[in-house]
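Key idea: predict the complex, not the pieces.
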Amino acid sequence: MSNVLKLTDMSIQFGGLKAIDSLGLEVNKGEIVAIIGPNGAGKTTAFNCITGIYRPTSGNIEYLGKSIIKEEPEDITKRGIARTFQNIRLFKNLSVFENVLIAVHLRYNDNIFTSALRINHRQENDMREEVKRLLESQDLYKYRYDIASSLPYGIQRRLEIARALATKPTLLLLDEPAAGMNPQETKELTSYIKKIRDEFGLTILLIEHHMDLVMDISERIYVIDFGKLIAKGSPSEIQNNPKVIEAYLGVEEDA
Ligand SMILES: Nc1ncnc2c1ncn2[C@@H]1O[C@H](COP(=O)(O)OP(=O)(O)O)[C@@H](O)[C@H]1O
Ligand SMILES: [Mg+2]
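Result:
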């Protein structure tokens, strides 16, 4: 079974608003798949459903062949789904090292406070060693004592991804990882995402507005607009799809 993630007819309604309307989506093992669409299309909401923050109103979400719609966010994380957020979420006043250490702790235990009490010296050393190796491999070790909020934006993004990697995910969800980045940073991020996919054997689903990144990195693309799937296909199919061009890819404002 090569299907890592499968959404079937998934809908979610907030009051009178159907934020997602009968979405079908599949991500196969090792793929990098993108979701694109205008602001408010329902992209982040889809991530919130997959990670258990929101419960779909109807439809199904299967991960590795098993429905996860009734599971709690912590259990979904433990099953191997990690994510980053549209607005970077880090423990702003903690160091780079501590930010990743917390993620490793959470893998061993649900609760950071009780887990800190139960863990013995050897486990603690093992975890620290693991954080060190991860930071080294992500070229972040030199920042280990730096307070997260003091780092340049691009490094904070990478730290957030490193923290997600510390949970040992199978499926990584990236919500607008290149938001706020300049073309050079976006280019670096593009090769970084490919690199971690290969190194960690990940399957990646990402939301992104930078079309150069999306077209370069994605094997397949889903386009949603007002909660509805309007197109799916390879980057070249999407670029040439009139519906997509009209909804999203830039009908000139004053054309
Ligand atoms: N918790 C919520 N309650 C009410 N409306 C929400 C909630 N979360 C998202 N929405 C609405 O759902 C729609 C899709 O939002 P979102 O998924 O954040 O869009 P995107 O990420 O594609 O820009 C928007 O109209 C947004 O206001
Ligand atoms: Mg969003």
